[in-house]
Amino acid sequence: MKILAIETATEGCSAALLINGEVIDRFQVAPREHGNLILPMVDELLNEAGMTLQQLDALAFGRGPGSFTGVRMATGVIQGLAFAAELPIAPVSTLTALAYQAGPPVEGQTVYAALDARMGEVYWCEYERSDDQLKAVSNESVIAPAALSVTQGKQAIGIGHGWGTYENELTQLVNASELLLLPNALPRAREVAQLAVGMVRDGQTVSADNALPVYLRDNVAKKKAQQQS
């Protein structure tokens, strides 16, 4: 299977090309530069692999939640590529891609993915590892750390820059006997591509017209969209 993926929902900008399980990628932390970087990254990967868009099986993108501008950009870019090459799209949760970075599943371990959403809130989702899989056990939400209700596990991983911003509040809330923090991790296209494999295989893809962003904070998204229209 051949899948091209992009992820621009945070200050990290990345693209990845998965070919039969092997991944090559580009990643750069470059706030406000995603528009200048993402298409050159895509071109570099295709050239490195000696491929064209038309030779791919599918496209994938981090559909959010995250920065309004970043999520909107990823959606627009992936729609344009899909229209050009007539390819299906796998819309992958940015939080799930982040949690997937925590490593191979360990039975009974809980992964808490948190991205700083500004305004005193985090983008949040809780995952459990069982049967060699990572499964979401909460809804994705944008919420103040103090308002969270979590399932407390003995072994846990906290991943994402939300943990860097709200380490004390979240650590007390989780109250795990063993807690590994990965506060510098950013979602990457590499994991988006890997997660997309199962979605493509299971028919969980959409057309370019139906590739939609997930903002969670709808009032802010609508306000910014109105300002930019």
From TrEMBL:
Keywords: Cytoplasm, Hydrolase, Protease, tRNA processing. One of its GO terms (biological process) is tRNA threonylcarbamoyladenosine modification. It is found in: Cytoplasm. Pfam families: TsaD. CDD domains: ASKHA_NBD_TsaB (cd24032). It comes from the Bacteria. GO terms for cellular component: cytosol. Residues 29-221 form the Gcp-like domain. InterPro entries: ATPase_NBD, Gcp-like_dom, T6A_TsaB. Gene3D superfamilies: 3.30.420.40. GO terms for molecular function: peptidase activity. Belongs to the KAE1 / TsaD family. TsaB subfamily. This is tRNA threonylcarbamoyladenosine biosynthesis protein TsaB. It comes from Cycloclasticus pugetii. The lineage of its organism: Bacteria, Pseudomonadati, Pseudomonadota, Gammaproteobacteria, Thiotrichales.
